[in-house]
Each structure stands twice: as C-alpha cells, then as structure tokens.
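Ex. 9. Protein: histidine kinase.
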Amino acid sequence: MPMNDMFYYDNRLSRRVLGYILLCSVLLSLVSTGIQLYSDYKDSLLRLEQRFNNIETSYIPSMATSLWDFNKSLMEQQIKGIADLPDIVYVKVITDLGSTYDVGDESNTVQQLFRQYQINYGDNEIGVLEVYANYADIYQRLWQKAGVIIATETMKIFVVIFVIMLVGHLLVARHIYRITDYAQQLATDNLDVSLHLDGRRKNKDELDILVDAINKMRIRIKDDIVKLEEAENALLSLNGELEVKVFDRTAKLQESNAQLQQSLDDLTLAKDQLVQSEKMASLGQLVAGVAHEVNTPLGICVTSITALKEKVDALKKAVEDQELTKSQLSDTLDLLCEYQQIIERSLDKSVELIRGFKSVAVEQHTDPELRINLAQHVNDVVNTVKTMFKRKKYNINIELDEQFEFVTFPSAWNQILTNFLMNSHIHGFEGRDDGNISIKFTENNGYLTLLYQDNGHGISAEVKKTIFDPFVTTKRGQGGSGLGLNIVFNLVHSKLGGTITCPDVETGCCFKVKVPVEYVESAVIRESIA
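Predicted structure tokens for histidine kinase:
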C-alpha cells in the first residue's frame, strides 16, 4: 500500500490509539512541565532567601559604620547596591536621629516580601533597615520558561506521533490492511489463494502467526465445504428415499384411518342401537306394568257388569211374572247403584293409569319442547314407574313446588327419573322389599336442581369414578347393559344443557342434576291426556 494511503481507511482503532498516545503525551508533558516549574519556583524563593541572609551578613556591618561616621554618600551607595540585587524593589534606612534613606519604588511594597533588620554599632542601636522584595520577576521568568517548555514538548509530541504512525504503518497497519482486503475478498471460488505479506523478516512475529492461522482456517473451510457438499448430496438422496417411504406410509395410514372411521361409525351405530334398545326395553317394562295395573280395575268392571246383568235379568223376569215386590225393587236398585259406583271407580283408576302412561310414552317418541307443570309431570312418571315394582314397599317422598311451571323437554325428564328409579329398584334395593327414595326439586337464580337420593346399598368408590361412562354395570351377564346412567348423562349435558354429579353420602346413593330454567310465556302448554 502506498504511503499516501495510510490515512485512507476510516480506522477507528487507529484513531483511538492515536488519541490515547496524544492524551498520554500531553498529560506527561504537563506533569513534567509543572514539576520543573515548581522546582524552579522553589529555587528562586531559596535564592531570594539567600539574598536576604547575605544582606544581613554582608551589608549590615558596613552600613553601621557609614551611619556612625555620618558618611551619607557611602550610605546611599550601599543602599543602591542592595536595591540593585535581583527581585529587590525597595530599600529604606531609618536612623535613630530621624533621618531616612531610601531607593526604589515605594508603591510596589504592598503585598510583597518584607524583611526588617536592626543596625547596631557596638552596643548602640543607630537605625533600622527595611528591604522589600517582589515576586513579579520570578513569575515572569517562570512564564517564559513555561512557554519554551510547552513549545518544545508540543514539537516533541508531534514528532513522536508522526514517527509512531510511520513505524506503525510500516510494521503493522499496512499488513492489517492487506489482511483485511484478503478477508473481504475471500470467497468459495478463491479458497485456493493463500494469504502472503510482503517485506516480512525471517523471524516470525504476531502478524506471521495470524497469517498462518488464517491460511489454516482457509484450508479447513475448503475441506468443510467439500464435506458439506458430500453431505448435501447424501441428504438429497435420503430425502428422495424418505419421500417414497412417507408416500407409502401415508397411503397405509389413510387406509387405516378409513378402517378406523368405519369401525367408529359401526360402534357409534351399535351404541345408538343399544341406547334405543335400552329405551324400548324400559318402555316395554312400563307397558307390561301398566297393562298389569289396568287389568285389575278392568277385571273388577267385568265382574261388576256380570253381576249387574244378572240382577237386571232377575228384575226383568220378576216384572214379566208379575212377582216384583217393592222391597225387591228397592234392594235391586241399591245394589245396582253400588255396582255403578264400583265400575265408575275402576274406570277412573284405569283412565288415570292410561293417561299417565300415554303422557310418558308419547313424549318419549315425539320429544317436543313444552312448558309443563313440574309436580304433575313428576307424579305421572313416578306413578307409571311404580307399576313395575308394585309388590315392593318403597316409600317415595316427592318435594317440589306444586305451582312451578317451566319450558323443557319432558321426555328427557321422563328418562332421567325412570332410570334413577329403576337403578334404585334393581341395584340399590337388591334383596330388599322396602326402601326410602327422596326426589327434591328446587329453583334458584334461574337454575332447577334435582336432588335424588335413596338409602340402598350405595355405589363403591371404584365404580363411582366411571359411573357415567357407557357400558359400566355391576350386572354384566345378568341383563345389565351399563347404558342407563350414560343416557342420563348425555340427556343432562346435551339436551338440557346442565350438569350431573354423584355426591358422596353416608347411606345409599345420591345424584344431583342442575339445569338452566327457561321461561317462555308463548310456549306450548301440554294438554291433559284423558
């Protein structure tokens, strides 16, 4: 690199180094100049003090003789000799007779160095010598010397800086610029070109070690690029094989997913069919129970009608034979009225049973959303379900608001209450003929809460963890499907938009159902079924 290019680079490091050198040089020059000036100042003060001592030892005796002899001319010469000494500005002699001799400017005596000496001749005090010195000459000499020192130091600093820059450029900077140019131009297409510095000695220094390290790094980079290209080619080959494997496995996965989806659809269909079968089985049990219950009052009606017919035939024969008496007619009429009342009560009971069953059965199939009277609906469901365990002595306690009406899916409540009651009958009261069942409805803050509880055998902690899962039953192989409470869970969550839990109780089991209540004035009100 030519000499005129040594300042071409915007080298901040060189600027900082140059600035540090300049700052250190200036500070050292200032410190050395200050020390030298202070030393000269102390020397000047010491020389001034020596002059004062010289005046006392050399001039005072001769001046005493001059005053004693009243040699005025000699006294004036002696005073002038003292005033001509360096830094002495004013000299004054006062005799004991009141005479005064002085040389110099008395105005410069303010705030100056002052000395006073007694003039004695023998034992006689004949006068006083006053000498005044001024620091102005000392300061002037120091300023002149400081100017010379600063000028020489400045020249020295600039010469040193120039020499350092020149030597630094020749020995270091130009080689660093060469290394920088090489590093900037280094690329994958010129890795074969090595770095070489011109004008280097045989003995290696730090720059030569740096050049060797860069050349070794260049060779390693070249080798790494070759290895990287080989690895890239191998990776491309592996990617091709991997894409083929991924394609094959994707096809197999799609086929497996299709099979799994078909299996899931089959399982869902089977579950729906099982749920429907469970509902139909429950409905069949209700039909059998209601048919059995209806058969009793209808049999009483048939018996009463047969007896009624016999009495009517006997009354008719007595009329035809003209053997009818008043007492016979009165007894026959009383008996007919009694038969009529028996038939009427039996038919009313049959109508009530059929109405309740029709209410439950129709709503389970049509599934409308209606506004119902909660008390009437619960009683219909309970009375219908009770036909399936009429021989049991269960005490069913129902606690609710008789006037409460709300909009809901009656079929959902039919299924929920039916499953709860059947679970208590089949599982809770197994091996027992009696039991207590509590059905309690409360409404608060827009939510209707059902708390169902019995005092049966209860549910074990292990079964309770999965009580609402499908196919969970303790009667597997004995007719239990394990779908009863799962149906209840789905109805509560999906259809009624509520929650169901199985709280812990000391005796029996308990279910808590909480659903939001909807009030709609224009909703359809279920008509009583005759």
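Check your answer against this statement. The radius of gyration is 66 Å.
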